[in-house]
Amino acid sequence: MTAGPASSSAFRDLATGPTPGVTNLLLAILAGVLAAIGAAGWWVSGHPEEINSFFQKLRHDPRLLAFRDRHRAALEFLLRRLRPEGAAGVFLSAGLISLAASAIAFGGVLQDVVAHDELARFDSPILTFITSHRVGWLTTAMRAISLLGAGPVVALVVVGAGLAFRRLWHLWEPLLILAVAAGGAELLSLSVRAVVARPRPPVALMATVAHGYGFPSGQATRSILYGALAYLLGAKLPRWQARVRVWVAAAMVAFLVGASPVYLGWNWPTDALAGWALAASWLAIVVTTTTAIRRLRGASPGAEAGTPPSPAPLEVDSALSAPKRPRTDPRGLSEAQVRERIERGETNRTEERSSRSVGEILRANILTRFNAILGSLAVVIVLTGSLKDALFALVLVANTTIGIVQELRAKLTLDRLVVLAAPTARVVRGGEVKEVPVAAIVLDDVLELSAGDQIPVDGVVLESADLEVDESLLTGEAEPVLKAPGDVVLSGSFVVAGSSRIQATRVGDAAYARRLAAEGRRFAPPRSQLQAGIDRLLAYITWALVPTAVILFAGQLRAHIGLANAIRGSVAGVVGMVPEGLVLLSSTAMALSVVRLARQRVLIQELQAVEGLARVDVLCCDKTGTITDGSIKLDEVLPASESETYVREALGALVAAATSRNATLEAIAAACPPPE
Description:
The chain is of the alpha+beta class. It folds into 4 domains: 87-305, no CATH class; 325-348 and 441-520, Distorted Sandwich (Calcium-transporting ATPase, cytoplasmic transduction domain A), CATH 2.70.150.10; 358-419 and 524-597, no CATH class; 627-676, no CATH class. The protein has helices at 8-16, 20-46, 48-59, 62-70, 72-82, 89-115, 123-131, 136-146, 151-169, 173-196, 218-222, 224-234, 240-263, 269-297, 316-319, 335-343, 358-366, 369-383, 393-420, 472-475, 512-520, 529-558, 563-575, 580-599, 609-614, 644-657, 663-671, and strands at 424-429, 432-437, 446-450, 458-470, 481-483, 488-489, 494-506. Strands 1, 2, 3, 4, 5, 6 and 7 form a 7-stranded antiparallel sheet that branches. Strand 1 and strand 2 (432-437) form a beta hairpin. Helix 13 runs antiparallel to helix 14 (269-297) and helix 18 (369-383) runs antiparallel to helix 23 (563-575). The longest helix has 30 residues, at 529-558. The radius of gyration is 36 Å and the shape is elongated. Residues 1-23, 81-90 and 299-314 have low confidence and may be disordered.
């Protein structure tokens, strides 16, 4: 699959030597590309405010606002990914965008080469022009530059730079990153060359003879090394300008390394384009994966960019200043007013969940490092057409199924418990007192409260009969607070005495208790020591898999056993490095423990929590609502002087005369009936 031989005029030009004017044009083009890269990088490094301002203006574009309204759900998902406090955040999003762009570019070039269309049509004229106007000193320089993309030199740079970083930063991670970047790119390049099998340009166009297939260009693909170096160095530089300049220098080196074999006649121009696109795709994967792993471990590669400011803490004093709203009629809202507020979304409904969603459970059990390693190898085997060799993937299916089934069972149990214990409240609507679910309360509803009730919304007291409120859950103060008409009550507090009617002024996520819970909520999945050890082992194996696979694949190809057999042999070699039995055994043991605990009326939400429970020596529980039902009972009366019967009758009379009852009075009333 060649792009066509050089024309006879090209050979005459080669014989007669370069034309000075055209040679100067060739040098000007080369210098112009380098200058364009440098100028673009220099402008970006010096104008961060203008770039930020451009994107801020773009946010208010009417067309983008209309697009946002049409695709709000999808955009909210993307915005969640872009939050800097996320495990992957903007790094993952930028990496995926770069990967998609470079993959599309590689696919376009490959399509043109296979069909000998569009870009491929320019290969022969461009290469003929370049090779027929070479300059002696520039040819020597390009030969030297091409060595920066030679396999042995790349290997030496990987080892040398990795050891230097180890000495400077006391980390082996940079060496592993460089090895994975260079080794993975080489593996991809060898695979594509074997599949496409595109010959190099004619020998007559070469400055020195090169052999083998030319698509994609080996030098251009290996230029990924300099992008990886820029990533490692840039992460340590404190200033934005310095980081941009490092990346610009890497882009210039990558351009020269990829362009040198084209100048020397070893590759067609589209070979170099494909090599750069392939290198960019693999670099995006390496950088994105490394950054995500660092952030998940708590290390921030972009710490030099500054830590996002923490939100201002909630203050009880500010929450006690109720928003000014029109006073609701004491008879409450009408049905029409309730419907109007429901249509506006002014309800007490929130997204509070008792357990993880089905999607979160599936993601937690499917998107694991073990599944990524074993699944990738299984996909490669299936693509070669050998299904029987992919039976090792059954371990993946079994391990994933165990985790999903156990966690779904726990979720269903928790959801049923929440439905049975759904809280209610008494509201006044149309002059009648109705009992409705707490989620059905709307803004400006009039709520009726009595002793023992938990206040579900923020509100203003309209009527009070010696109302006393316990705000200890919010303020830490254990003393009850007396509330008069016009005072503010906060959601999450309890009525300990008296009765009242309040007007709801903040509902749903705007209520103080909801905001306080959202500020303090930080989901941290249980991490057992066993699981952490397995993950650490898999991380080391992941770094070792790529260079091992490259060595095995290269050896298989040199044995001339065919591409499919080479792939199967390489996968068979690296599958043995994955501890499948260890992972499956640990999941099975934890699943059996869940079953045994369930027989003891213990509900396990996540498999990893089993090991944590096994390491517990003392279990401390808050008694109310955990090991009791939250009610009290009068068990015995010990009179100081009078008879017990007299004391019980006196207590019963006092309770009967009380206008409202708290939990203590209810317990006394149950044990001490009033005298007849």
